[in-house]
Specification:
Helix content: 25-40%
CATH architecture of one domain: Alpha-Beta Complex
Number of helices: 15
CATH class of one domain: Alpha Beta
Order of helices and strands: HHEHEHEHEHEEHEHEHHHHEHHEEH
Number of strands: 11
Distance between the termini: 9 Å
CATH topology of one domain: Amidase signature (AS) enzymes
Largest sheet: 11 strands, mixed
């Protein structure tokens, strides 16, 4: 196997044994980028010079036996809505085309201190608004398994980079499924931690009560490794939870005998590709054979999740994106008056989907509609949370599909926003509830990956990692990395 194909865990072991150097690993990844990037378009900015300097510093530590961590010298990609000091951060939007942050996001600071090698900033749906990485001002990302098909979104660039070997690890953000769904579409592992588990300081906001940073990796164990470095309380983020961070790797090697798994009947209905349902049920049978106890559960307010999500998310987006007016930073259009400058800047700086969501959010927050739409959506959000609370009084983990369908062709849904929004029907409820969820590969159909989603109680990522790691090993889908 080539070095770019190996997991972070395996590469870290080789570095510690001095069997391979960080510079050799980076060289393998950069060569892979040269081979695949024109075809995939996973990156907006490639930071080769910075990466080479960081790899050289890691190699000096390796020689001295002073490695900083288990990700020291490991190449990592960062979604382009996470601020990186001195490195362009665009949110895949024309309006931030040349924005260079003067500071690092907390997660970036933590990864730099751990010795990570930052390879670049990955492509995404503009301002994380999309499910296919087609709304990017820098062009769409292609699925590494089949060119011309979407990689999912909005963290499609991060998922495609890890899947194609253009990065070993990556960070994404998840507002309604934007880590889990592209991970499922690209055949890799992606986790949305509990809201508040990972600092959002330095994450350019889409919907502040829903956004969460998380890892995209080759294996569940790599996911646990990266989580160990990015989780933890941050006083810079008022939504950061003051809760201890366990060593997530310690949860991995426990068996699942007696673990109670719930299958929500509302997730296995008309609209779900029968072939995907078959893969999910086969996975559950495997877990049941190994000692898990499986039962059907109900999450009755699931049918309101998409409507609720798109009211709350767009309302928050309308507020958060009001700052992009051409005055202080970013793109600015020339005009004869201030008002005209505002109008032209926002009209020409934002893409069609972003403008659509800003308009919808502004409408639901406007006088006369706030109570009818936004306030009602907040009440339904509470009902969805209560559904999960009741379910977790009976089970330890909930298993669902990631998406009702396989990766689709680029351009197939761009003219029908409702069809695009329904792609996230199985993921948005977790963001509304603040729950952790993980997507793990679950086989292939017609050469395209299928993902399975595991969900657990708030701040119980250990259960997720334990069950998903057990399934990953038994299914044998990531052997050898």
């Amino acid at each position: 196997m080539e070095l770019y194909e190996l997991s972070a865990k395996r590469l870290s072991e080789l570095i510690r044994k001095k069997e391979v150097s960080p510079k050799e690993i980076l060289s393998s990844v950069l060569k892979r980028i040269e081979e695949k990037e024109d075809e995939i378009n996973a990156y907006i900015t490639i930071t080769k010079d910075i990466a080479e300097r960081q790899a050289e510093e890691a190699e000096k530590r390796q020689i001295k036996g002073e490695l900083l961590s288990d990700i020291d010298g490991i190449p990592l990609a960062i979604k382009d809505n996470i601020c990186t000091k001195g490195i362009r951060t665009t949110c895949a939007s024309k309006i931030l085309f040349n924005y260079i942050p003067p500071y690092n996001a907390t997660v970036v600071e933590r990864l730099i201190k751990a010795g990570s090698v930052i390879v670049g900033k990955t492509n995404m749906d503009e301002f994380a608004m999309g499910s296919s990485t087609e709304t990017s001002a820098f062009g769409p990302t292609h699925n590494p398994f089949k060119r011309g098909f979407v990689p999912g979104g909005s963290s499609g660039g991060s998922a495609a980079a890890v899947s194609a070997g253009e990065a070993i690890l990556a960070l994404g953000s998840d507002t309604g499924g934007s880590i889990r769904q592209p991970a499922g579409f690209c055949g890799v592992v992606g986790m949305k931690p509990t809201y508040g588990r990972v600092s959002r300081y330095g994450l350019i906001a889409y919907a502040s009560s829903l956004d969460q940073i998380g890892p995209i990796c080759k294996t569940v164990e790599d996911c646990a490794i990266l989580l160990n470095h990015i989780c933890g309380y941050d006083p810079k983020d008022t939504t950061s939870a003051p809760i201890d961070t366990p060593d997530f790797r310690k949860a991995l090697d426990k068996d699942i005998k007696g673990v109670r798994i719930g299958l929500p009947k509302e997730y296995f209905i008309e609209g779900l590709d029968k072939r995907i349902e078959e893969r999910i049920r086969d996975a559950v049978k495997l877990l049941e054979k190994e000692g898990a106890v499986v039962e059907e559960i109900s999450l009755p307010h699931t049918r309101y999740a998409i409507s609720t999500y798109y009211l709350i998310a767009t309302a928050e987006a309308s507020s958060n994106l009001a700052r992009y007016d051409g005055v202080k930073y970013g793109f600015r259009e020339k005009a004869g008056s201030l008002i005209e400058m505002y109008e032209k800047t926002r009209m020409n700086g934002f893409g069609r989907e972003v403008k659509r969501r800003i308009m919808l959010g502004t409408y639901v927050l406007s006088a006369g509609y706030y109570e009818a739409y936004y306030l009602k959506a907040l009440k339904v959000r509470t009902l969805i949370r209560e559904d999960f609370k009741r379910a977790f009084s009976k089970v330890d983990c909930i298993v669902t599909p990631i998406s009702p369908e396989l990766p689709f062709r680029i351009g197939e849904k761009t003219d029908d926003p409702l069809k695009m929004y329904l792609v996230d029907i199985y993921t948005v409820s977790l963001n509304l509830s603040g729950l952790p969820g993980i997507s793990v590969p679950c086989g292939y159909i017609d050469g395209l990956p299928v993902g399975i989603q595991f969900i657990s109680r708030p701040f119980d990522e250990e259960t997720l990692l334990r069950i998903s790691h057990f399934y990953e090993k038994k299914a044998g889908l990531r052997d050898g990395v």
